[in-house]
Specification:
Shape: globular
Strand order of the largest sheet: 1-2-3
Number of helices: 16
Order of helices and strands: HHHHHHHHHHHHEHHEHHE
């Protein structure tokens, strides 16, 4: 599907089939591709087929990159076509597992919210925020929906603002405040005869649409390419002209961190790192009818890997291993203050 294809013109069943075929050609990316296929099947209304894809991923012999995300998506999908008890059991399992990825927390909390389980949704959002954001000076981009969802549910519950609600307001960049967007009385304005109330609701809807468009305009992170030491040695041995781009592995790692910090300080959100391999890069160069020695090909390769779901969010969550592969915590490695 082309990025500019209007959603109403998409044949979701055909797109799911295409993604399944692509997953067969790129088994290393099967997890991300099959998750996209399952999403299209849900949009097509074929929820049992989507569940079958989630089960296929969960029963695969190789470990998944994001097993809790797959389980969360399966639970949300199951609940939508009548399998509430199974969905609840999976949701409880996700919460007990306490994943370090914010996406499963958001998905299961929103599933509870959509079925009017507001207290449970609030508890889930709060549990995820407590785990991922305690003592974190700057919430990573991926955690923003966790804070926004928690703010929304608390408004529906009539709870007073707390520190995380204030933080959510700070992170929210639209022209209409979160308090307005999450006002539980908004539904009444849609039936109002008051022009001022209708105009205010139109402004709120435009702000929401703008936020959704901003999210969809960058469905995958702005990613920087990382070569492990052995892969970089192989790359430079096969393609010496790239030595000007990579004078040493240490310099390469330092450049990655400094580039990401510069992007972050300039206001760019949703950043990530993709790890390259020489065979994959050679295949990409061949698909572009280009030589692997062309430096301009490297950022294109990084973008392609990110689009195929291969990006790791940056910065890593607090206490997790550094992206460089040393095994040290990020704070004790490249995340140390400079």
């Amino acid at each position: 599907m082309r990025p500019d294809t209007p959603a109403e013109n998409v044949d979701h069943t055909a797109e799911a089939a295409r993604l399944e075929r692509t997953a067969g050609r790129y088994p290393e990316d099967a997890e991300a591709l099959l998750l996209q296929a399952a999403a299209h099947l849900e949009l097509a209304g074929d929820r049992p087929a989507a569940t079958a894809l989630y089960d296929r991923l969960l029963s695969a012999p190789d470990p998944l990159d994001a097993p809790h995300l797959v389980r969360a998506l399966k639970a949300a999908n199951l609940w939508e076509y009548g399998h509430e008890a199974e969905a609840r059991a999976i949701i409880e399992g996700v919460r007990t597992a306490a994943p370090r990825d914010p996406a499963p927390w958001v998905i299961v909390a929103e599933a509870l919210e959509s079925h009017d389980e507001l207290e449970a949704a609030h508890d889930t959002f709060t549990q995820g925020a407590t785990l991922l954001l305690t003592d974190v000076p700057e919430p990573p981009y991926a955690t923003h929906p966790l804070l926004f969802g928690r703010h929304r549910v608390r408004r529906m519950l009539g709870a007073a603002h707390d520190d995380w609600d204030t933080l959510a307001d700070t992170l929210h960049s639209a022209s209409v405040s979160l308090d307005e967007l999450h006002d539980p009385k908004r539904v009444w304005s849609l039936g109002s005869d008051n022009p001022a109330e209708l105009e205010a609701e139109i402004s709120r809807l435009r702000a929401e649409l703008g936020a959704h468009r901003e999210t969809l305009s960058r469905p995958f992170p702005v990613a920087v390419l990382h070569w492990p030491a052995t892969e970089l040695d192989e790359l430079l041995s096969a393609y010496p002209p790239l030595s000007s781009e990579y004078p040493s592995h240490e310099a390469h790692l330092s450049t990655i961190e400094s580039s990401l910090r510069e992007l972050s300080s300039s206001g760019t959100a949703n950043l990530g790192i993709v790890t390259g391999t020489v065979p994959s890069y050679e295949a990409f160069a061949a698909s572009e009818a280009s030589s692997p020695t062309e430096v301009e090909l490297l950022p294109q390769y990084a973008t392609t890997l990110a689009a195929r779901g291969r990006a790791t969010p940056w910065p890593p969550e607090r206490g997790t291993a550094c992206w460089c592969g040393t095994g040290k915590s990020y704070e004790g490695c490249h995340g140390a203050e400079v």
